[in-house]
Amino acid sequence: MRIVLLTAFMATIWSATALAETPPAPPAPPPFFVEASDCAAAFEARVVERQAQPRSDARDRAILADTELGFAFVAQAYKKGLRNPEADQMLKAAEKRWTTLSKTEQQNRLSSCSVKGQQLMRDFSAFERFLVKNRAQARVDRLLRKEAER
Hints:
The chain has helices at about 1-20, 30-50, 55-80, 85-100, 105-125, 125-150. The chain contains six helices and no strands. It is mostly helical. Helix 2 (about 30-50) packs across helix 5, helix 3 packs across helix 5 and helix 3 (about 55-80) crosses helix 6 (about 125-150). The chain starts with a helix and ends with a helix.
């Protein structure tokens, strides 16, 4: 009987020790951070699609608009405290999720992200809008320069 009790006691101690040594799971990111990474990935994917289209002023304006909306989500997430390396990891995960969506789901996500991104831009201060638009323009200028070099 003593051996059974001793064995049970040791098993309890071992399992409690094993649980105590297991690091806690990282907390789930706030829902807005997930939405921001999903929307940034969606706009990035649409920019890539637009790059495959013939060059035109309309296409370039559409690329800029998508880039601005993507940057609006990035800026808002940054304001709320999202930083690297977590931000990059979340974006990579969102890019993978994007590829698993059907065309209909992708269109629905882009539509809802566009509405939310436009609202974010309206809610930004004039200075914040300037920063988002300036950074987006710099990104698009760099992208179009690389495209012209090919």
